[in-house]
């Protein structure tokens, strides 16, 4: 991930990856998380970058091949094949092309295959599942249009952040504010951890005792 669009610098991307998806999600008001069904193929995979969206038919990956002709280094392909799990729309051949372009990674609302090879190639792939089955290459679709995964709508250029905890989407014009809020949240939590190590409790720090009493606990 050496190249990014104007919305995010390499330095900011490194900070975002260090903070993690959960912190960015909380920092922007518990908003923008994809559902928990989408996870990295390998637990150490991380991704950050602007979305290049693909709206495509289940079981057919023609539009992925088309989108790769438009993709730029640093992009994150967000592939919506409607959660269909009975065909692997992405594999090691497409991964080879993605690496040659310099893509940051992909998010697939569906299934991929060749997982072992993808892991060996160290390319970040976040997916709903795995399938050994292949796809057709004949159905139309759309590139760079809004796509909805679960209850989250992703627009072209939105910033995608993914790691072992999951995937969160941050609007491009809010990424710097979200990063600032995330750093502030991380500092607060670090302060909490230091106090806990010195004997404080989470109930004290979060002022939960009144809630306990109200609930009769």
UniProtKB/TrEMBL annotation:
Q: Which InterPro entries match?
A: RraA/RraA-like (IPR005493), RraA/RraA-like_sf (IPR036704)
Going by the entry's taxonomy, the superkingdom of the source organism is recorded as Bacteria
**What SUPFAM superfamilies does the entry give?**
RraA-like
Cofactor(s) essential for the protein: a divalent metal cation
Pfam (any one): RraA-like
Listed name of the protein: Putative 4-hydroxy-4-methyl-2-oxoglutarate aldolase
Q: Which organism is it from?
A: Rouxiella silvae
